[in-house]
Amino acid sequence: MNTPIPLTSLNNKGIVTSLDREIDDFFGLSQINLSYANRSAYRKLCREKPQLDGAELVRRLLTRISENRSALTQAGTPVRGGQMWRFKKNLKLDPGNASLEVRIERAIARLMDSDWVNQVPVSSGLTDGHEAKRSIDLVYRHSDTEYDFIELKALSPGRRCGGNQTPLFAAMEILQYGLIFLYCRENQEVLFPGTVDLRPLLRARIIHLEVLMTQNCYEDLGGVGRSGLGWLNSILLTGLEELNRRTPCLVSFTFAFKQFTKDFAWAEADHQALVESALDGCWPEALKAKIQLAIAGREPTGIC
Q1: Strand 206-213, strand 116-121: pairing
Q2: What distance in Å separates the CA atoms of residue 220 and residue 239, rounded to the nearest whole number?
Q3: What residues contact residue 287 under an 8 Å CB cut-off, 6+ apart?
Q4: In sequence order, what DSSP letters do the residues of 192-208 get, joined into one string?
């Protein structure tokens, strides 16, 4: 739900510096001047269904993340940002925010229980360079050691998705956040000396990476649909399998494309009712039931 990751220069030592370039190179997009954040790139890849080694993608991204932080790590320099990997709800509601994704995310944070949080920062202050906002849309706590990291995408009926709303872009976002988490988990004593206990997510041993979308996000783009996603799902699963073998005692990852039920819709009236109820902090039971049902009913996307 964040803005597309821009192409970066090697002089900008943010933690995501050149991750986009690594992804574009991996998918063979750089040489044809396309980016994975472009809708036409997604359609091209779905048509071609490239058989690529996901383990190579994971290795490239982890290496780049480590290189972006390496000088500070070697110097024992901790993170400046105090909010990274917090487990706290962001309940701010802007009545004028027209983004359906933001509206659904805030509704989930407000109407679900304390095991659901949103907008978990993953990069602020991690390097001395400029760190644009990077946050996990939704995090669900199964237990103190098991969490879902969820990238949320949503389209209103009749809307066409942009390049940053495709399954490819969403999958690359949540993969990057999972790998940044792993880097922080492995280096937590250097990165967060004295504050590890304030970051309960760093105790996680099992992370379920998830792309959660309204069904029309999968069905847009000229009929590509779910059936064209098998190649991408295979790349991600292969990469994470190798990663799990690499860190069997530290943390293990899963991945899934998931969707809301077809009849789920968060309408303007729902949003306005939530905004109005925020004034007294008393949530309408109908809204709460609607969101709880949507979350409970989300399901893996059928792909082949």
Answers
A1: unpaired
A2: 27
A3: 107, 111, 270, 273, 274, 277
A4: STTTGGG-GGGG-SEEE
User: What number of helices (H) and strands (E) belong to the chain?
Assistant: 10, 6
What does pLDDT average to over the chain?
88
Q: Which stretch of DSSP H or E encloses residue 142?
A: strand 135-143
Phi, psi (deg, nearest 5) at residue 199: -125, 75
* pLDDT tens string 124-141: 888 887 777 789 999 999
Sheet holding 206-213, edge to edge: 116-121, 135-143, 146-153, 206-213, 252-259, 299-300
**Residue carrying the six token digits 């949503």:** 154
In the block, which residue shows the tokens 């000229």?
Answer: 222
pLDDT at 80: 85
Could you tell me the two tokens for 233? 């799902």
Backbone φ and ψ of 118, nearest 5°? -140, 165
Please answer whether residues 253 and 178 qualify as being in contact, where contact means their C-beta atoms are separated by less than 8 angstroms.
yes
The answer to whether 176 and 64 have CB atoms below 8 angstroms apart is no
Q: Position of tokens 């990057």?
A: 176
What is the rounded distance in angstroms from the CA atom of residue 240 to the CA atom of residue 248? 11
**Overall residue count recorded for the chain in this entry:** 304
What is the gyration radius of the CA atoms in the chain, in angstroms?
A: 19
State in Å, rounded, how far the first CA of the chain is from the last one: 26
Strands 252-259 and 116-121: unpaired
Nearest by Cα to 290 from 142, 151, 117, 111: 111
Identify the CA nearest to 253 among candidates 169, 185, 170.
Answer: 185
Strands (DSSP E) along 191-287, which ranges? 206-213, 252-259
**Segment 3-31 mean pLDDT:** 75
Residue 6: predicted pLDDT: 37
pTM above 0.85, yes or no: yes
User: Given this model, what pLDDT does residue 301 score?
Assistant: 87
